[in-house]
């Protein structure tokens, strides 16, 4: 079994590298999966994938350093924060988040939209607003104060705050990105039945609750929240507090109004990916 997302997943599907899933072997998935991850646009009818966990790309900031609330995508371009802004250095979140920030739906965006997004990101870089472009290494600079606000993933901020940080995570007024890491089975897998059995196992409510407690990203099984609350009732002390923090967090169990403000990645053809990459890679690689 493989867990992946975005353009890599789209290429695996396009190249017929994934085995179709036998829906009859996924009873827990169809009984318990949240509607937001059933029949996704990137894999209609879940023919090849089921969600592992999801997350939100938004903005995290240290309110003790920014001196004010952060609410907008445009705050990442504010000259007042010059040299204190972190952005993601990739061709997935950086371009899609910029499109959302500009009021453009990534899923239906055009090359003309991409060029406009590249223009504003290039200007942000050239104006020295950005301190650095990060992969998964932005949390420490954010905690230390090297950067005051940054593009961020929801689960990272939940985990950092659980360990004592004082950071805030927001979905900007313009919206954010909802991404999903998906489980899938390569056509060459030697034990595909074992793989699909595990995939469905992860959708049992008890198991999904344990995964949510350990992973701290958005669970695909909303019923897991009630199970965590029930288990917290039998716990005490720090364990109980952590369980309730997970159950009450909108970063693990987002409300519908937040989900409605999120968009998905643009799925690209191979030709589109070449143009997309040529626009956005030089921004963070130069």
TrEMBL record:
GO cellular component entries: periplasmic space
SUPFAM superfamilies: Periplasmic binding protein-like II
Keywords annotated in UniProt: Periplasm, Signal, Transport
Major site of localization recorded for this protein: periplasm
Subcellular location: Periplasm
Protein origin, superkingdom: Bacteria
Biological processes annotated in GO: polyamine transport
Listed CDD domains: PBP2_PotD_PotF_like (cd13590)
Pfam family, one: SBP_bac_6
GO MF, one annotated term: polyamine binding
InterPro entries found in the cross-reference section: Sperm_putr-bd (IPR001188)
Protein name: Family 1 extracellular solute-binding protein
Protein species of origin: Candidatus Protofrankia californiensis
């Amino acid at each position: 079994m493989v867990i992946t997302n975005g353009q890599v997943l789209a290429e695996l599907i396009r190249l017929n590298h994934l085995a179709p899933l036998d829906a009859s072997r996924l009873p827990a998935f169809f009984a318990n999966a949240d509607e937001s991850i059933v029949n996704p646009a990137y894999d209609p009818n879940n023919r090849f994938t089921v969600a592992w966990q999801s997350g939100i790309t938004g903005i995290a900031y240290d309110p003790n350093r920014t001196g004010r609330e952060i609410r907008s995508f445009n705050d990442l371009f504010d000259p007042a924060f010059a040299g204190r802004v972190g952005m993601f250095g990739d061709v997935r979140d950086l371009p899609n988040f910029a499109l959302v920030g500009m009021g453009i739906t990534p899923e239906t965006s055009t090359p003309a939209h991409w060029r406009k997004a590249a223009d504003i990101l290039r200007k942000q870089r050239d104006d020295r607003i950005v301190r650095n472009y990060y992969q998964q290494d932005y949390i420490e600079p954010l905690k230390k104060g090297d950067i005051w606000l940054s593009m961020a993933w929801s689960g990272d901020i939940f985990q950092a705050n659980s360990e004592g940080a004082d950071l805030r995570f927001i979905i900007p007024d313009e919206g954010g990105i909802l991404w999903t890491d998906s489980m899938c089975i390569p056509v060459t897998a030697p034990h595909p039945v074992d793989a699909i059995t595990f995939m469905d196992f992860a959708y049992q409510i008890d198991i999904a609750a344990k995964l949510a407690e350990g992973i701290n990203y958005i669970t695909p099984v909303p019923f897991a929240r009630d199970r965590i609350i029930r288990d917290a009732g039998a716990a005490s002390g720090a364990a109980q507090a952590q369980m309730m923090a997970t159950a009450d967090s909108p970063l693990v169990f987002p409300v519908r109004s937040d989900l409605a403000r999120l968009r998905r990645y643009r799925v690209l053809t191979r030709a589109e990916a070449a143009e997309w990459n040529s626009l956005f890679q030089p921004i963070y690689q130069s």
